[in-house]
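Exercise 7b. Backbone tokens:
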């Protein structure tokens, strides 16, 4: 199984839970809920600081693992647990520094546990 690259996850990265529960109202106004899957899952939004070469490597990994059939293992730095995930969006970059011909990026990544 493929492993998400081990880039450092920056402070402010987040992990939330999604439970697949949909709550709505019936025609008579009573509250109803239904579950669209069997258990709670994790949703991750995190950032890396990386060089152009590291970012290119991340984009190559994304291209090889985009889509719902392209699962990979991801280690969440906060709890050191491994989660089976997919990308929920392409990585997004923000240039934070230019030194000569080199760029340094903040890169935002969004994953969801399968």
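Sequence design result:
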């Amino acid at each position: 199984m493929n492993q998400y690259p081990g880039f450092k996850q920056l402070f402010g990265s987040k992990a939330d839970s999604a439970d697949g529960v949909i709550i709505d109202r019936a025609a008579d106004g009573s509250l109803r809920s239904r579950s669209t899957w069997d258990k709670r899952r994790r949703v991750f939004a995190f950032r890396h600081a990386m060089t152009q070469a590291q970012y290119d490597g991340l984009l190559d990994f994304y291209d090889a693992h985009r889509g719902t059939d392209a699962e990979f293992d991801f280690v969440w730095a906060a709890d050191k647990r491994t989660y089976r995930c997919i990308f929920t969006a392409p990585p997004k970059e923000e240039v934070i520094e230019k030194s000569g011909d080199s760029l340094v990026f903040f890169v935002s990544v969004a994953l969801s546990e399968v």
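Instructor comment: Residues 52 and 101 are 10 Å apart (CA to CA). The chain is about 10% helix and 50% strand.
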